[in-house]
Structures are given as structure tokens and as C-alpha cells.
């Protein structure tokens, strides 16, 4: 067997083993038999013993899987090492591997890079002129011609797919849309599809469908099931919403997909097979990968750059196999159909001429509320005009079909909130059926037309392609940044409403707290006092509110103000409820005597509990606010005192609170653990207090702080550079070595078209340096736990912090900003990092926190086109070094010049940008943003289209997204004894992320948890091209240690 073939088999086998863990219903919760004991155990002891046995079983499963994969991999590469490209990597002295041999995972990554084939969108962008000439009837395209005999041997097979796009919030709230429109659409659907078996429809948004289902009787539910079984109604994608693909994190994308699919499976017993994404503002291969993993084989997308659409239409590549950048095999391929024209509405879907297609949108008949902008109204189909109408429509169908490789033609029929009224159903279905009958009666036209679903279309497509021996091209890459016309690039929404984008991640992290193993205990508890069902309902509500916010007009920040408030209220309410779930579960787990459990959380039961939501042992800093400048923290179980620091709580930049103080202490948290600490008042000398130095050029500040040592240097000392350092990093004047931070403003254009919620249309001057009338106040704090420098400006405060930790948290620079631009008009605030990295025009951003994507800054494109979404990470890289920015929230990012990386922090815009919203973005709030900056050395030239974060960057990003959670109540002498909870004996391998451990709904009892959970693991690709200075102890398998290969410059 050839090496490449063997490699494919190995990778495929490893992938299969990993994916067996995904969506897996763990047998470990199926009533494991307890060992015999001479002493009868109580029900609580049995529950806890059973839980621990099941966790042990999970550990064994993971260890066995890792051992098998590692053994196969090492066996292969020990024989083929000389044939595989690799880079040297240091390993620990206890490892059996030579330092000259690269890690197997790195070798696999190199094979992925070398095996790229097919169309790469990066190369398409290099090729296209982006000149946008007038294409005639198809303004953004070209004239399409045909002879007329192309279908003589194989008739044109037309499938018309009725649909209604229902936004779960945009101009109205989710609830108002449902009451005003959506429920009427679905009610009419039930009636009108039942009237004629030839009628069909697709539906995407399960959030609406489930709400409607809950409000109909059993007879109507049976009618729905019959329509689904008959193929007249197809649920497409199956997600809770039609999700945004730029800002959403893959955890939330997958969770909303699971929520929808589980609902469909439970109530209808079917699985979606095709995806439908016609309105997200750009498309990500991460979503394609998730859909393929969820069992879908096909998908439809719409919003891609008009120049890309034109190019694909010319090459007949509008239908392609979408493959992941990092995958050298077809296992991740999904068949994708890209709509060729401007929009998914009727005028832009039947063919290239919208003036003609609009005449076949029978909702716009004269006398109705809608009309055609081209001033040629539709006509009802009659015997007198049917020939002329049929031939006019057929001409559009034929022109459109020339853009594809098969004689099967897909034509959508619908728009936003269509088919509300019964009359529209009759008009659309009645007139089109008359046209289809005419086609059938005239075989010389060589066309067969019918209503259909996506399954009907893709089934016919694959049959025709297979019969003809035709294969679709392979495509890699993403479809950002989207432009719908001219230079109108939709890069504004990458940042719009950043307060809510940050709240989205907060709920995501909070939702992950109670779905981790420590709180799955509720599925094992038989105690009637434990509120199992209530907790599960809170979990479900939290999942669904997070899922709702992934809608492409929610997390994007492109809804009207009242709708945004409704989203925010849902998010915040869920955060509070999920905290109650975790607190209640933690209470039960930590109690030695379970009889003392009470679920009334108004009664204090603990002093301070810290939960580690990650699968890794971690060193962290825990912060709480106390009412005394003296405090002591001890481990409740061992009595060991913790390293602490008392810092001021600054009510104003130079005035410290006299009532509240910040207590920070260092903890080492085992994976997924709950650890108990006691916090007590102590003498003012018991804890190290931070020392402060204040600077302000020309005007020393008056500082009010009675409990802390404060100095304000004057004279030459005041101009001396500021410096901070820990074991790994050194800052001078708030800057990491060779990395500077700048702040800038963008304005908007002065002409009619201006920036808005969707569009970024900067002024001709570009970015202007931030300036302030008054010099900033600079506050430097130094302490044993952390040291930082805070610069206070009029519109923001900027803090850089070093943690004095031995673990990976001490090897990066923490950057935080608090922004308030509510006083500004048509301005956008940007943070720019300036480094010495010679990255040319290339940089990398993540896609949904799932993978990295190379970007190329192109001078032929306008400035706004070179901004891309950053969900969680971006980096610059050259042959010698890499600068990585890891983010706790999604924002727009660009590298407009070599060595520079800029992030849009907030935007305030007074006007609508003519994309339907009807308002600007003026509901800004005081908004925090958080990052970690990592600089590392690399020992080989970067620049490949497939790159990954280092293991160290992955771990820092994990800690950033999932900080420890604290639960604090005042101490009480009646508090029962608590013990730490340690569900795992050791960390998972550092390249394996426990994405989710999801309680499933009981199949027999609605809104109650079952004894099953779904385990989702993500094995992350990582970069190995850098050299470590301090070993990062991470296990790869039970037999092999792997260090992170990143060196932080001092």
C-alpha cells in the first residue's frame, strides 16, 4: 500500500474514533451496577458513587482512544519518518522520542498543507479585477445566450422551491413577528399543502416552528407529520435559527444546531439532509463542516461577493464540493449550491433579469400591497396570455441554467415573511401550476417543471451528475467579506453593538458551566428535594436564548433598538438562572452530608467556591470584592494560606473607594473541579497591598486613597519610562517588546452613502490618531499577584496587565479596554497593534473559534473590504516571529500595513445604511473588551494557507473564554462541612477540548432530563513551528508527553 493511501486510512480512522465521541449518548449513565458493600449506603452515597464510577469510565474511554490513535500514528511514522516533512520539536527528558523528530500531529498538519487541491478562494481574490462593469439586465453579471437546442436530448428539469424567510427578530421582536406573521404562515401552510399533493414547501427556523407546534392540537400535529412523511414539507438545516456565520462561536453554532435537530427528532422523527442559508452576511466553512458532521449532505448559500458570483457563473462553478482548508481528503466535503444573483427574493431568482422575474411574483399582482420596482406588474395566468407568459418565463429559466453544469435547475419562490395570507398561497401556487401544466402539454419546449424541496432538487442533481459522469469542482476557503453592490462591504456588523457581542460570550461561558460533568449529577439524583426538572428547564431556556441570539440579525447587531433590548434581556435572564443551576448543583456535590442540602439559595451554604470549567489543570487569579482592606484566604480542606493581593476599587480614575476593595488570590484548580476556600477578615498587614504610582504630564493628579501607598513622581523622574515584568515578559511604558498600542478614529463618508449597522464606509482620510484635550492619567499598580498600567482617556480606559503566575497565564499580556463613545457622532474607535513582524500583506483570523484562515490585504480593494471577522483570534507571522491576539469577544480586524493589526472596538453611527433596518446605531453602552497578546519565535517560514494557533495560544484562549467561576456568600457558623469535588484524576490531553457534555431530554417525559448525556470532544490542530523556552506539560496520550512550542520574547 502506498504511503499516502496508508496515511489517508490512518487519518480517517483517527477521525472516526474522535467523531464517535461526538453526539454520543454515553452508556456510562445507564445505571452502572455498584460493587457490593457490607455497609448499606444511603441514596446520596449511591448517587455519588455511581457518578464517580461513570466519570472513571469516561476517563478510561478517553485514555483507550488516545492510546490507540497514538500507537497507530507512531507505528506508521516510525517507519516513514524520512518521507514526511517535519520540524524539530523539543520533548521532555522523560519522553522516548528524539528531539530531532517532529510531533506526529505536526506531520499530519504538514501533509494537509501539501495536499491542497481544487479552487482556493484566496487565489480567486488575487485573480479578480473587482472592476464591476455594467452587465446589462444582470447588472453585476453578463449577458447570457443559448442556442435553443441544448435541452433536446436532456430536457430542462425545473424544481421550484417555495419558502418563507422568517427572521427571529429584526424590525420586530421574535414574539411580535410570531403573533403578527409567522403563526399565520404556518397555519395556512397546513391548509394549503393539504389541498394539493403537488404543492411543497421548505421551512428553516425551528425556533418559530416549535413555538407554533406547542400551540396547535394533536390533529394538526398529525397533519404536519403526514406532510413531512409525504415530502411536501421539508425542514431544512434544522437549526434553532438561520445563524450568523461571522460573529458566532462554533460552540453556539453547534449548540443551536443540536437544539433544533433534537426537537425535530423528538417530535417528527426525521433528520434534515440539506442546509439553507440565504440571509447570513457571508459564509464560513466552519458552518459547512458542522452541517456535514450533523448528517447533512447538501447546502444552499446566497450572500457572497457579487464579483465572486460572476466569476463562478462564468466558470460554471456555482455548485461545488466545499472542502475544509486543513482536510486533504473528501471526508468533510459537502455539496454546495450558490445562488447566482443579487438576492433570494423572486425578482432575483428565476433568471438574470429582475424586471422579468418580478412579473412572476404573483404576490405583487395589481391591487395588492406589494408592487414591482420596475413598474411592470405581474399578470394572472389566463388562457389568453399563458403562451406568452410561459415562454417569457422559460427564457429566464434557460438563461439561468446556462450557469450550471447540469440540466437540473433550482429556483426558489419566496422572500421575507411570505405566504402570510391565504390569497398569496392561492395566487402563487395557482398561477405557477397553470404554467407547469402548459409546459407538460408542450413537449417541444423540453422542460419539466414542478414544485419541490431541497431534497427533491439535490436528489435530481446527483442523479443527473452521476449519469453523465460529471464531477463538481472542489472549493476551499470562506466568503468574507461580503459586498452586495459597488464598494459596499458588510464589514461594519463585525463590530456593531459590541456590548451584546460580549454578553453573548458571557452566556456561552455561563451555559458551559452547568453542562460540564460537575453538574450532570442532577440526572443521577433521586432526592425529591433536588429541583431536577426546574434546573433542566433553566438549562433548556438558556440554550434556546443563546441559540436565538445566533440569528443573523441578533449577534450581528443589526436589529432595531427594542429588538436588541429584548435579546439582551433574554441573555441576562439566562445568565442569572444558570448561575442558580450551578450553585444548587455545587451545593449538592460539595456536601459531605447530603441530608443538609437545601435548594433555597437565599440561605447561604458556602463562603467561597471556585469552579474550573475547563478540562485542564490551571493556575488562575480569582478576584472578589470585599469590604475590608485586610483579608486572608485559606484552602478550606487543607488550611493552606493562599497568595493574596488587596487592590483599590477605583470609583474614579484617581479616587479609591473607602468601602470596597478588590481581593485577588492565586489558585491551582484541577480540571472540572469545585474547590472550597474560606475568606476571613484579618489585620491590614495580612495581605499584600498593591502600590500605586500616578502620572499625568504637566498636571500631577490629586489622588484620594487612604489605604494604599501612592506616589506621583515629579521632574525628570516623571518622564522616566514605565516598566513592569514577570518571569516571562517585560513591559516598558506599557508596551510589550517591539509591540506598540495605538488608538484611532474612523469617520464616515460625507456623501449620501454612509456607514451604518451593516456597512463600513470610512471617510476619505482613513483612520485619524486619537487625541484628547487633556493628557491621560496613567495609574501603575504593583503587587505579588499582578501588576498593571491603566491609561485613562476621555472615551476609554486602557489596561495592560502582567500576571505573576508560573503557568501559561503568565506568558501572555492581558489587555482590557472600557469604551464609552456615547458623546460622539459618526465615529468608530480602533485599537491598533504595531509590531516588527514582516508579514507582507498576509495575516490570519479565526473562523468561529474553530479554525484559522489566511487573509490577504489587497490594494485593489477599498479599505473596508480588508476588514474581516475575528471571533476569538488573529495573528501576524513572518519567517522569525508571530504576534497573536486572542480575544474574548467578536470584532472586526484588519492588517492594513505590514506589522499592524487593528481591531474596531465600537461604532456609533447616526444614519441608516439602506439595508432595511431603518435606523443607525446609537444605543451604545459602556463596553468592556478583553484580550491576551502573545509573541513567539518560529523556526520556519510561515505563509501557508493552512496555519493553526500554537498549543499555548489554544490554552490561553480557552482560559480567556472560560474563566473560573466564583460563588460567594457570607460565612455562617451553621454552614455544613464541604469537601472539594474532583471528577477527573488528570487533565485531558492539551489538544483535546471538552466542548460540551449535554444533558438530553427524557424521551418519555417532556422538559425533564434523561439518564443520557451527549459528549462532544474537539481535537484541535496546532502549530509546531516555534521553539519553547519553558516546557508546557501537556499529555498527548498516556504514553507520550507533548510540550507547547511557543517562546515568549522577554
What secondary-structure arrangement, pairings included, does this model have?
Blueprint: H1 3-20, E1 24-25, H2 43-80, H3 104-114, E2 119-120, H4 121-127, E3 156-165, H5 174-195, E4 201-203, H6 206-214, H7 218-230, E5 233-235, H8 250-268, E6 274-277, H9 285-293, E7 298-301, H10 306-315, E8 319-323, E9 334-338, H11 354-357, H12 386-401, E10 408-416, H13 422-441, E11 447-451, H14 454-468, E12 474-476, E13 483-485, E14 488-489, H15 498-512, H16 532-549, H17 561-590, E15 608-611, E16 618-626, E17 631-635, E18 644-652, E19 655-669, E20 674-681, E21 688-689, E22 691-695, E23 710-711, E24 723-725, E25 730-732, E26 735-736, E27 739-746, E28 768-769, E29 777-782, E30 786-792, E31 796-803, E32 813-819, E33 827-835, E34 842-847, E35 851-856, E36 868-870, E37 873-877, E38 881-887, E39 891-894, E40 900-908, E41 927-937, H18 951-961, E42 965-968, E43 992-1001, E44 1009-1019, E45 1034-1037, E46 1040-1042
Parallel strand pairs: 2-12, 3-10, 3-11, 4-5, 6-7, 7-9, 8-12, 18-21, 22-23
Antiparallel strand pairs: 1-44, 8-9, 13-14, 15-20, 15-42, 16-19, 17-20, 18-19, 22-29, 24-25, 25-26, 27-28, 27-33, 29-30, 30-31, 31-32, 32-41, 33-40, 34-35, 34-37, 36-39, 37-38, 38-41, 39-40, 43-44, 45-46
Which short descriptors sum up this protein?
metal ion binding; 46 strands; 24% strand; alpha+beta; disordered N terminus; globular; 1050 residues; single chain
Amino acid at each position: 500500500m502506498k504511503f499516502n493511501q496508508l496515511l489517508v486510512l490512518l487519518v480517517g480512522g483517527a477521525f472516526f474514533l474522535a467523531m464517535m465521541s461526538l453526539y454520543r449518548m454515553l452508556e456510562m449513565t445507564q445505571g452502572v451496577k455498584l460493587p457490593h458493600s457490607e455497609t448499606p449506603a444511603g441514596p446520596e452515597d449511591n448517587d455519588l458513587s455511581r457518578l464517580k464510577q461513570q466519570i472513571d469510565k469516561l476517563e478510561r474511554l478517553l485514555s483507550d482512544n488516545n492510546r490507540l490513535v497514538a500507537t497507530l500514528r507512531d507505528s506508521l511514522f516510525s517507519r516513514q519518518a524520512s518521507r514526511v516533512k517535519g520540524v524539530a520539536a523539543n520533548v521532555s527528558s522523560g519522553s522516548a522520542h528524539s528531539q530531532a523528530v517532529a510531533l506526529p500531529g505536526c506531520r499530519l498538519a504538514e501533509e494537509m498543507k501539501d495536499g491542497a487541491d481544487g479552487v482556493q478562494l484566496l487565489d480567486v481574490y488575487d485573480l479578480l479585477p473587482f472592476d464591476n462593469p455594467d452587465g446589462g439586465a444582470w447588472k453585476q453579471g453578463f449577458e447570457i445566450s443559448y442556442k435553443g437546442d441544448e435541452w433536446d436530448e436532456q430536457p430542462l428539469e425545473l424544481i421550484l422551491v417555495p419558502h418563507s424567510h422568517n427572521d427571529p427578530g429584526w424590525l420586530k421582536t421574535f414574539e411580535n413577528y410570531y403573533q403578527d406573521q409567522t403563526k399565520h404562515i404556518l397555519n395556512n401552510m397546513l391548509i394549503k399543502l393539504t389541498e394539493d399533493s403537488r404543492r411543497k414547501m421548505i421551512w428553516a427556523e425551528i425556533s418559530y416552528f416549535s413555538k407554533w407546534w406547542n400551540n396547535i392540537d394533536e390533529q394538526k400535529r398529525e397533519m404536519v407529520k403526514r406532510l413531512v412523511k409525504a415530502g411536501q414539507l421539508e425542514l431544512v438545516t434544522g437549526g434553532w435559527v438561520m445563524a450568523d456565520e461571522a460573529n458566532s462561536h462554533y460552540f453556539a453554532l453547534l449548540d443551536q444546531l443540536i437544539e433544533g435537530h433534537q426537537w425535530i427528532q423528538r417530535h417528527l422523527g426525521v433528520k434534515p439532509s440539506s442546509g439553507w442559508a440565504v440571509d447570513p452576511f457571508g459564509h464560513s466553512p466552519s458552518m459547512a463542516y458542522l452541517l456535514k458532521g450533523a448528517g447533512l449532505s447538501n447546502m444552499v448559500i446566497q450572500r457572497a461577493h457579487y464579483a465572486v458570483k460572476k466569476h463562478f457563473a462564468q466558470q460554471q462553478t456555482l455548485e461545488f464540493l466545499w472542502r475544509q482548508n486543513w482536510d486533504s481528503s473528501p471526508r468533510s466535503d459537502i455539496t454546495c449550491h450558490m445562488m447566482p444573483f443579487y438576492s433570494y427574493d423572486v425578482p432575483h431568482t428565476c433568471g438574470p433579469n429582475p424586471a422579468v422575474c418580478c412579473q412572476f411574483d404573483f404576490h405583487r399582482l395589481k391591487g395588492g400591497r406589494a408592487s414591482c420596482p420596475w413598474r411592470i406588474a405581474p399578470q394572472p395566468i389566463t388562457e389568453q396570455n399563458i403562451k406568452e407568459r410561459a415562454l417569457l418565463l422559460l427564457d429566464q429559466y434557460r438563461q439561468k441554467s446556462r450557469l450550471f453544469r447540469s440540466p437540473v435547475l433550482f429556483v426558489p419562490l419566496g422572500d421575507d415573511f411570505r405566504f402570510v395570507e391565504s390569497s398569496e398561497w392561492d395566487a402563487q401556487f395557482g398561477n405557477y401550476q397553470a404554467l407547469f401544466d402548459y409546459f407538460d402539454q408542450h413537449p417541444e419546449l423540453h422542460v419539466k417543471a414542478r414544485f419541490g424541496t431541497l431534497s427533491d432538487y439535490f436528489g435530481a442533481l446527483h442523479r443527473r451528475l452521476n449519469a453523465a459522469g460529471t464531477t463538481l469542482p472542489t472549493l476551499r476557503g470562506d466568503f468574507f467579506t461580503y459586498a452586495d453592490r459597488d464598494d459596499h462591504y458588510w464589514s461594519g456588523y463585525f463590530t456593531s453593538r459590541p456590548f451584546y457581542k460580549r454578553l453573548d460570550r458571557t452566556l456561552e461561558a455561563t451555559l458551559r458551566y452547568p453542562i460540564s460533568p460537575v453538574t450532570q449529577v442532577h440526572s443521577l439524583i433521586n432526592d425529591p428535594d433536588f429541583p431536577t426538572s426546574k434546573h433542566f428547564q433553566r438549562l433548556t431556556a438558556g440554550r434556546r436564548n443563546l441559540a436565538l441570539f445566533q440569528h443573523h440579525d441578533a449577534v450581528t447587531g443589526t436589529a432595531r433598538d427594542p429588538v436588541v433590548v429584548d435579546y439582551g434581556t433574554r441573555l441576562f435572564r439566562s445568565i442569572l438562572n444558570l448561575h442558580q443551576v450551578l450553585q444548587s448543583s455545587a451545593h449538592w456535590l460539595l456536601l459531605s452530608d447530603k441530608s443538609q442540602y437545601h435548594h433555597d439559595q437565599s440561605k447561604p451554604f458556602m463562603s467561597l467556591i471556585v469552579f474550573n470549567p475547563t478540562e485542564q489543570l490551571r493556575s488562575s487569579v480569582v478576584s472578589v470584592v470585599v469590604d475590608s482592606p485586610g483579608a486572608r484566604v485559606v484552602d478550606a480542606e487543607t488550611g493552606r494560606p493562599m497568595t493574596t493581593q488587596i487592590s483599590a476599587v477605583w470609583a474614579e480614575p484617581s479616587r479609591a473607594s473607602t468601602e470596597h476593595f478588590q481581593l485577588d488570590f492565586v489558585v491551582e484548580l484541577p480540571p472540572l473541579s469545585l474547590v472550597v476556600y474560606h475568606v476571613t477578615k484579618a489585620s491590614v498587614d495580612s495581605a499584600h497591598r498593591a502600590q500605586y504610582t500616578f502620572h499625568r504630564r504637566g498636571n500631577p493628579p490629586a489622588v484620594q486613597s487612604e489605604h494604599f501607598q501612592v506616589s506621583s513622581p515629579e521632574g525628570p523622574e516623571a518622564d522616566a519610562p514605565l516598566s513592569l515584568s514577570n518571569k516571562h515578559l517585560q513591559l516598558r511604558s506599557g508596551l510589550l517588546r517591539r509591540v506598540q498600542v495605538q488608538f484611532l478614529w474612523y469617520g464616515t463618508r460625507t456623501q449620501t452613502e454612509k456607514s451604518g449597522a451593516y456597512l463600513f464606509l470610512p471617510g476619505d482620510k482613513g483612520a485619524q490618531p486619537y487625541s484628547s484635550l487633556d493628557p491621560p492619567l496613567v495609574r501603575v499598580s504593583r503587587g505579588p499577584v499582578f501588576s498593571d498600567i491603566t491609561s485613562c482617556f476621555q472615551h476609554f480606559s486602557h489596561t495592560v496587565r502582567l500576571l505573576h503566575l508560573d503557568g501559561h497565564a503568565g506568558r501572555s499580556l492581558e489587555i482590557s479596554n472600557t469604551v464609552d463613545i456615547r458623546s460622539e457622532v459618526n465615529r468608530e474607535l480602533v485599537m491598533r497593534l504595531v509590531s516588527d513582524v514582516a508579514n507582507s500583506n498576509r495575516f490570519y483570523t479565526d473562523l468561529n473559534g474553530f479554525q484559522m484562515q489566511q487573509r490577504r490585504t489587497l490594494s485593489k480593494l477599498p479599505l473596508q473590504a480588508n476588514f474581516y471577522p475575528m471571533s476569538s483570534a488573529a495573528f501576524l507571522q513572518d519567517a522569525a516571529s508571530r504576534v497573536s491576539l486572542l480575544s474574548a469577544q467578536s470584532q472586526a480586524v484588519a492588517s492594513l500595513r505590514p506589522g499592524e493589526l487593528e481591531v474596531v472596538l465600537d461604532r456609533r453611527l447616526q444614519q441608516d445604511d439602506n439595508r432595511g433596518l431603518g435606523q443607525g446605531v446609537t444605543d451604545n453602552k459602556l463596553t468592556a473588551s478583553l484580550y491576551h497578546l502573545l509573541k513567539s519565535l518560529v523556526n520556519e517560514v510561515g505563509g501557508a494557507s493552512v496555519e493553526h494557533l500554537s498549543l499555548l495560544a489554544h490554552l490561553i484562549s480557552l482560559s480567556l473564554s472560560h474563566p473560573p467561576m466564583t460563588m460567594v456568600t457570607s460565612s455562617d457558623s451553621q454552614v455544613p462541612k464541604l469537601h472539594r469535588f474532583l471528577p477527573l484524576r488528570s487533565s485531558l490531553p492539551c489538544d483535546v477540548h471538552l466542548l460540551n457534555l449535554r444533558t438530553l431530554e427524557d424521551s418519555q417525559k417532556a422538559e425533564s432530563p434523561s439518564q443520557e448525556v451527549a459528549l462532544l470532544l474537539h481535537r484541535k490542530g496546532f502549530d509546531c513551528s516555534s521553539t519553547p523556552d519553558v516546557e508546557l506539560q501537556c499529555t498527548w496520550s498516556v504514553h507520550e508527553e507533548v510540550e507547547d512550542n511557543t517562546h515568549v520574547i522577554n
